[in-house]
Structures are given as C-alpha cells and as structure tokens.
Amino acid sequence: MKNMKYLWKLVMVMAHALSGCGKKQIDVSGAKNEMNVAEGKEQFDASMTSYKEKLDNITIDAEVLIPSAAQSGEAPIANGESLDLKKDIEQLKSDFFSECNPDSLTCDEIEDGFFSIENSEVSDEWVAFAYNNSSSISINSANAQHKLNCIVRETYDEGYNGNLYQQKENLSFMSQKEAADKAREVFRQYGIELGDLVNVYVMDYETMEEQEDTTGSDGENDDSMKKNGWSQEDDTYYMFFHQMFQKYPVIYQPYAGMGFSDGEAASVMLDQDGIIEADIEGCFSWDVKETQKIISLQEAVNTFEKNYGGILEIEYNIDKISLLLDIIPENQRTAKLRPVWYFQGKMISGADQVDTAITIDAVNGQEIMS
C-alpha cells in the first residue's frame, strides 16, 4: 500500500503538469465557527471547528481541530536530538523485562546511542526492546504476536475485523482511561509525552480466540503457531496515541530514506502483565528556537488547490484538517519540529480510493512532501 501511495503521488504530479486549475464552487452554508471562503477571511482563526469548500476536483467538508495552545496565533519551531535512552537501560529492563530471568537478557549496541535488549531463553516468553537508528522505539513479545494474529486494522483488507474490538469501552482488569494513563506514565519517564488517544481496540479474549489467524505468507494455516488456550487474563488494550509537545499533537511522516513509516500515532499494547508491545517513532528531545505566526487555514487551502486542483480523473474528499507539529528528520540523530496544517481524507480515481494526507507548512504555506 505504501508503494501504491508513492505511485499515485507520481501520477498526480504528472497529471497536474498537464491540467488546468479548477474553478471554485463555494459552499456558503455554514454553522457557527465554520470558515466560509466567501467571507474572504485570511487571518488565523483559532476558534474554527469546521470548513467547507467545493473546487473542481476537491471537496472539503471537514472537521477542524486546533489545539488550545494555538490561541496566541503562534506556534513553536524546535530543533531535536535523539533521546539518550542508553542511560536508562536498567529502568527499561525493570519496565519491560520484569518477568524475565535477568541472566537471559542480552544487550547489543546497534551503533552509538542505539541498542537492543532481548530475552530469548524460552521461545514462548521472548521479549525484545530496540531503540533503532531512526530514533524509534520498538517493543515486541511472543505474547503480543499471538494477539496481533487476532486483529486486522486496515479497512481496505478483506479480513478487516478491527470493528469487532470497538464494541465495548472497558475491560475487567482496568478501565480504558487507566490503561491510557499507565502507558503515558511509563513513557513519560523516558522523555516521551503521549497525549490523546487517536484510536483504541478493546481486545477481549473471547473475540481474540475466535479471530486468531495464523495463515502464513504462503497462504497455509499453521495451527502450531496458535496460542495454547485463551482466558480472561489475556484481555488487552491496543492503543494509539498522538505524541505531544507543548500541548500540540505531533505527527511523523514517511520522509524519503529516513525510515519513518506512515501514520501519526504511537502504538502501545497493554494487558495485565504491563506493556507487551509498542511502536513509537520520532523519539527526540526538543529545544525551542523561536515561535512563528500561524498562517490562516484559507492560505493552506490555497496551496492545496494550487498543487492538486484540476488534476484529471483524480478527486479528493477531505473530512479532517488538524493543526499539528510535524517532525522533519535531518539525519539519524537530529530533526526539526514545525507547525503544519494536516489534511486527511480520500483520494479517488474511478472505483479505487485510498487514504491520503497532505501536509502544508503552517508558517510559509508550502507543501511538505514525503
């Protein structure tokens, strides 16, 4: 799917070069706090909650999310360096390997500042922690792998079943709020601030037992890989968070060659034993260098139209626009943090559609290309 997105990006750029710009058709109906383009507002408005506009091949009918920290009309620009987690190895062992035999743990240095810790003594109880050279934390375990075999989150996949884990809010061992707070507490001590939940799957053991799928890449089902019995002790929260900085949500985009993957959320899987899986990208310590005025959403929309308006046989339906901070990697150890307008929705070509996200710099109005 990632390769398809890049292919579509190439198609869009070529089509844009051959096409004219579309004529605006403005939707003048609106509720309180809705930005109406016909009114000609060009100033940043922190009170906006929605935005509507119809262009030739772009339809925007979007919820607008602006953090309270943006009320001043300015946002931070920061320089970042990879977190130094090597000094915290003993604490990491306590947090993620407490059930393991200390003599079975191995710690290998990947390169200066990056490392891995692993317990591989017993195959059914292996746990691994890695802090890799893309400044990302990865925690995995045999326990988590069994549970990941029970869920398909991608809505485009014919095996999608994520909705089955969104029928209830809480599990018996801990409430959803308590689970989220526990994850935040653990990672805060390492300098990682997890904010609002973007999504959560409440994975009860009965549904996991029914949905477990150990089909391999060859299409063959391997029953020997199935979990040996399920019980209420296996109940699990699979949570996705925004990282936060100065009360702004933070995203990290797939900038070419930097190893950052698609998506905006840090994942944490937590059961009665604690955190059994996590994937947190862009682990930096930030130093604010300056603050800059935020451009209006209308200016960002103008960039969107300039870059994608009038593209033949491709339509955009945007249903969510957020003001966020975006991690822009410089190399394996450093990055910039800049405010962005983040447009999310669908890109449609004929009968095909894929999720799309367009990122516009909220200071200079230029698109940030992945």
Q: What's the helix and strand layout?
A:
Elements: H1 2-18, E1 34-36, E2 50-54, E3 58-65, E4 74-82, H2 89-96, E5 105-111, E6 114-119, E7 127-132, E8 136-141, H3 142-148, H4 176-188, E9 194-203, H5 205-211, E10 236-245, E11 248-252, E12 266-271, E13 274-280, E14 284-293, H6 297-308, E15 315-329, E16 334-349, E17 352-361
Parallel strand pairs: 1-2, 3-15, 11-15
Antiparallel strand pairs: 2-3, 4-14, 4-16, 5-6, 6-7, 7-8, 8-13, 9-10, 10-11, 10-12, 12-13, 15-16, 16-17
Task: Give a structural overview.
It is a single chain. The chain has 370 residues and is of the alpha+beta class. The chain has 6 helices and 17 strands. It has helices at 2-18, 89-96, 142-148, 176-188, 205-211, 297-308; strands at residues 34-36, 50-54, 58-65, 74-82, 105-111, 114-119, 127-132, 136-141, 194-203, 236-245, 248-252, 266-271, 274-280, 284-293, 315-329, 334-349, 352-361. The model is unreliable at 1-40 and 255-263 (pLDDT under 50).
